[in-house]
Amino acid sequence: MRNGSLEMNARTDAGSRCRLVLACLAAALAAAAMAAPASASAGDTVWICKPGQADDLCAGTIDGETFPPPGEQPQPLGYSRPEDPPVDCLYLYPTQSEQPGPNANLDKDPPIRRVVVQQARMFSSVCDVYAPMYRQVTLNGNQTTLNESVETAYRSARSGFRDYLRNYNDGRGFILLGHSQGAAHVARLIAEMVDARPGLRERFVGAIAPGANISVPIGEDVGGLFDNVPACTEVGQHGCVIAYSTFNDVPGATAPFARLDFGYWIYPGPRPNPDSFEVMCTNPALLDGGDGTLEPLVNFDYLFDVPDAETASPWRGMPDYYRVDCERQGGAHWLNLSKVGLPGDARPDLGATVADGSNYHVPEVNLAEGNLLRIARLQADSFRADARAKLQALRTSLSGLRARRARHRAKLRRLRAKIERSAAGARRDLRRKARAVRGKLAAERKEIGSLKERISELEQRLG
Length: 463
Description:
By secondary structure, the protein is α/β, with parallel strands linked by helices. Helix content is 35%, strand content 13%. Strand 13 (322-329) and strand 14 form a beta hairpin. The chain is elongated.
């Protein structure tokens, strides 16, 4: 903080500590275990993750094991990739670029590669992961407020999202993923593209966007930054947003996250009134069907740099160490972190090694990665279940409409036959009735065409 303004530096949005968060976490875990071009246009996107791409960074190994509680043995993590993922994911990474200008180019620099592996790769156990490079605000840029650099970054991210929708989505359901700067751009994409478009909302499975200060009315789940897309409140709910800011104590008056009266706000328009609005907090350790316990995950191969080659099982989990609850106090709304405190548990406090005092913004994705994966899987399952139910209802409606149309056709044939046999005086009334039936047939033909289009869209969505 300087002169009362927020600096998105190493203490907030992925500065040098954020760049080394997973390295620090994994190093502590290992020690304990051992004892400038213009913004990219759609179609020109550089992808760091894209299914089928030769250098798809999200296609590497997802194998590993747990670093267990006292008295338990390590267990395989058990993640695997489905042959035909039910939905897609589009991921935007947090601030990582060390390039000298205010906005990065589209080079796949090592810090970006590290965070993409650590935050996005494991989602390939749920979805096809697409991650566009975008002209993010660099560590040398300014994220204190909406400005030219932030707008350049957002437009570049939006270009990648549009490219995905036009060329790769094929009507499938999609999840939006991001953290910090990436989460803020995800939130704006929802506000400006998804929220206002019913057709796009039908394909919107959900979003995971920690560290973005998304606003909602106090005690409500919708009505702030988004008019239609709510915060997630139930296990398996889809079409909603997971967002939170992690602290282990009450965020202070100048906390960069969890508050609307101060801190991170790079959205168009003024800050919401903190007397009526608050930062969204959804608990990933409950919305995954759990009891409030976090499931951290970290990749050992990507500790300090990008490895020349990956080992077979670099991932480690640390279950039953942290608990979280959404709390509000003094204008702040945050995900409060505490320890489970199992007897004899001498495992390291991973998050504390990189936290900025009580602020756990830096490690908050990987401390909850296992929970977030389960949430995404539950959302994908419920999204597809709803789509199947809608498909069955539409097929039933189509069958009934075709049967009604067949009856009207038969009625029209009978009327035509009567017209041929009837005297001139009776034909006028019969022709009037025939016109009415033809009108019904025309309306039914149009309705059948609409139903067939909707059925085709759902069939495509379900693969």
